[in-house]
Structure formats: C-alpha cells, structure tokens
Automatic annotation (TrEMBL):
This is RimJ/RimL family protein N-acetyltransferase. GO terms for cellular component: cytoplasm. GO terms for molecular function: protein N-terminal-serine acetyltransferase activity; protein-N-terminal-alanine acetyltransferase activity. Residues 16-185 form the N-acetyltransferase domain. It comes from Saccharothrix australiensis. Keywords: Transferase. SUPFAM superfamilies: Acyl-CoA N-acyltransferases (Nat).
Amino acid sequence: MDPWPLRHLVLRTPRLELRPDDDAGLLELAAEAERGVHPPDEMPFGVEWTDAPRERLGFNAVRHHWSMRASLSSEHWTVNFLVRLDGRVIGVQSLSGESFAVTREVSTGSWLGLRHQGRGLGTEMRAAVLLFAFDLLGAATARSSAFVDNPASLAVSRKLGYRADGSFVQVRRGRAAVQTRLLLASADLVRPGWELSVTGVTPCLGLLTGREPTE
C-alpha cells in the first residue's frame, strides 16, 4: 500500500491544476494569504483565521493544513487541494467527507487570493472537486454554506446548481451573522462546458470512499 496515495492525485481544468497540499506548495499558499484574501472590513469565513497578525498568518495556515493531513482517515477526511494557475499557488479548494461510505455526501470550502478574484476561477475550482466527487468517488450530494453578505460565494453556488437548504446564526467578530446552507444533488450539478482531467485517482479510492477499486 502506498503510504500517501494522495500525492499522485491531480485534477486539471482549462486554466487550473489542483493537487492535494504538499509542504512546498503550502509555503506558496502562506505567501498568498499574506498578500490578502479579502478586504479588512469583511469576514467571509466562519473561522476568522485571516484576523491573525500578518506575521502569524502563514504559520497558522501551514499548521492547520498539517493537522488536517494528520487526522485524515476513511471515516473523516478533508483533502485540501492547492490551486495553481500558470504553475503558481493562488488558493485552496477543500473537499471533505464524514462516514462517506454510508452518507455519500461531501462538503466544500475554499479561498482564493484577493488579486486573483473576479475572474471565474472560484467557480472553476469548485466545479473541479464537484466533478471529482460525483463522477469518480460516487457522491450523491454536496453541501456548502456562505454568509448572506458574501455574494461572490453565493453566486458560485447558484451557477453550479445548489439550492438553499435553511440557515443558521453564527457569531462573527463578536456579532450575530446569518449563514445560508446550500445543498447540491449530483443530478442537479450545472456541468461546465469542459471536461475534467484526473490522474492518480485509483490508489486514493480505498482511502476516500472506504471501498477498494474493483480493477
């Protein structure tokens, strides 16, 4: 058994390459975070990690990704795909599963460096992991959420076919803020006009789905 089969996994879209995080890539990701992820008067994240002092931001990000790698199992996993444009890391797209073999449900989260936003890259990278989850892992549903004052994230969800599935209140920077829950069934995905290219998936299937490949 390969001790870390995720190192072979690559998702490719027309503009982007997504690979599970590695240490060299995390250094690039930390540098991108330090350049800025959102305007300082906004907070799009449920975990306010970008409020950390700039000198701690990169360290905290790298440590978080290491902890997610260390806790990964077939029952509880998060794959943090580093998103590369023209060979450089510009953000991260996560895909998570809890008891996936039973639930067949995934959830997603992401961030993109501020200087790369507004170009449709957020839609492209989320579409990539949804196609991977539905077509190759056999997921039936995908979930996401976004604060009601985060129109960019909500727009990505609408483009891809999610529907609203309730809401919840969360404390954000000391105040109550509402998040919209979002649900997408496999059959409702608005598929992009391009094909996802995937390599290295077969060795990962046992780890992510709880079942070994049949071939």
